Amino acid sequence: MKNFYTPLLVLLAMLVGGSAIAQEKTYKVALDGTFAPHAMPKLDGGVEGFNVDLAEALATELGAKMDVTAAQWSGLLPGMQAGTYDFLVAPTTVTEERTKNMLFSEGYLNTDFQFAVKADAPEVTSLEGFKGKTIAVNKGSAYDKWARDLEGKIGWTVESYGTNADAVQAVVSGRAFANVAGNTVTAWAVKKTSGLKLSYLHSTGKVFAIPFRKGDEELRKTIESALECLKTNGTIAKLHEKWFGYAPAADAAAVTVYAGFGVPDLAGYDATAHKPNCK
Q1: Distances (CA, A) of 45 to 33, 42, 65, 154, 219
Q2: 40 vs 29: CA distance, rounded Å
Q3: How wide is the angle at C-alpha 256 spanned by C-alphas 279 and 222, nearest 5°?
């Protein structure tokens, strides 16, 4: 009798195990693999960065897999809308215009404008503190346009460079007093470049969030609940410190769980109360 049941039990265990593996959810997601420090090529192949780690953390929290594709930014949102990707793990700024065409999770990072200066430069506590200074920017970027629009008001001089790395080097070499770019990009530049420090942070009130197709409200609920767990257990704060070089502020999007689903006061927001079921 023992010999009869033992193989049967082994077979049942294999079937149950195989069924569990077969049922493991896989999400097709994408990001821009050239946007450091959010995602960038590794020397041995593949990509690494804050958002790569975030995707892996979400997968762990969900007990699922993330099939991550690195592609050009210009094709990410159209690809998602066409159904190629379930959602994006690329840092995507939530704007009023974008909320008309897609859903967003709550924000997980603040996206502000930040200046970098030489380590021995005087402290600057306002935009007016850059009066008479030369500001280096990445040509054609949002920061280029913003700085030039303020040139007459602030009294600074804007110089544009082909890449933000070149703009950073202009500060290092003394050709510019400061570089301005997104806060996470600037933090990465300071972390990787000797002789620089973070300077004035200009708040935009905007956040990075995870985009979804309209109609995928249930998927958003699932992913946002996992995202909230990663805020609650400190995972996102740890990734923030790992990739940006400093801990997020106590009221930062990286550690703040917001009521409802989505970004409050914008289209697509769902105020339904919920409590995430965290591991």
Answers
A1: 11, 5, 20, 44, 30
A2: 16
A3: 45
